[in-house]
């Protein structure tokens, strides 16, 4: 397995980790369960580490995909630029989750407020990392391009006539 394979594999972890962690944390807040909140914090920390790995392997993936005919440099640049924002948000989420974990274990009076803040950060992080994933998917998955759906429909209509 090379860095490109690792990049493609690991990029899903921050996306699913941030949304799944958010759902688990929301449930933990609702159920007033510290154990559930701790599980969510661990998911966020794992997602944060995954974002770091995805970002670190991004350059190798870029070098690989640039050699493929028909790949848009513009799409690669968009993905790369947006990935910085996603990485920053996931680092903030990971640090906030670590703080939340420590406060929860220590039974601090700030546990609830911290959990709400972490949930808010997770929602923002999910949005940023999902957008980054969408932009990355457009590099090789032409079926997700808005204009390719229209051209496919046009092509199908021409075949039927």
Q: What do you see in this structure?
A:
With 161 residues, the protein is mainly alpha-helical. It has one domain. 86% of the residues lie in helices and 0% in strands.
**Strand residue percentage:** under 5%
Number of strands: 0
What structural category arises from helix and sheet content?
A: mainly alpha
Total of domains: 1
Through-space gap between termini: 47 Å
- The helix/strand order is HHHHHHH
Could you describe the largest sheet, including whether it forms a barrel? none
Overall pLDDT level? 84
Shape: elongated
Instruction: List unreliable stretches of 5+ residues.
Output: 154-161
The rounded Rg comes to 19 Å
Tell me the number of helical segments per DSSP (H or I, 4 or more residues long): 7
Residues in helices, as a percent range: over 70%
Could you name the key traits of this structure?
161 residues, mainly alpha, 7 helices, 86% helix, 0% strand, elongated, disordered C terminus
Element layout with pairings:
Blueprint: H1 3-10, H2 12-31, H3 34-56, H4 58-66, H5 73-105, H6 111-140, H7 146-160
Summarize the entry for a quick read.
The chain is mainly alpha-helical and 161 residues long.
């Amino acid at each position: 397995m090379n860095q490109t394979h690792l990049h493609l594999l690991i990029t899903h972890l921050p996306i699913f980790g941030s949304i799944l962690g958010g759902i688990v944390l929301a449930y933990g807040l609702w159920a007033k369960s510290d154990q559930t909140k701790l599980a969510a914090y661990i998911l966020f920390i794992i997602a944060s580490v995954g974002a770091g790995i995805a970002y670190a392997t991004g350059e190798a993936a870029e070098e690989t995909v640039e050699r493929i005919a028909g790949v848009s440099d513009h799409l690669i640049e968009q993905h790369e630029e947006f990935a910085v924002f996603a990485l920053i948000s996931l680092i903030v989420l990971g640090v906030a989750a670590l703080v939340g974990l420590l406060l929860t274990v220590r039974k601090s009076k700030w546990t609830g407020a911290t959990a709400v803040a972490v949930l808010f950060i997770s929602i923002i992080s999910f949005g940023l990392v999902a957008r980054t994933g969408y932009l990355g998917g457009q590099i090789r998955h032409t079926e997700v391009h808005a204009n390719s759906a229209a051209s496919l429909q046009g092509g199908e209509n021409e075949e039927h006539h």
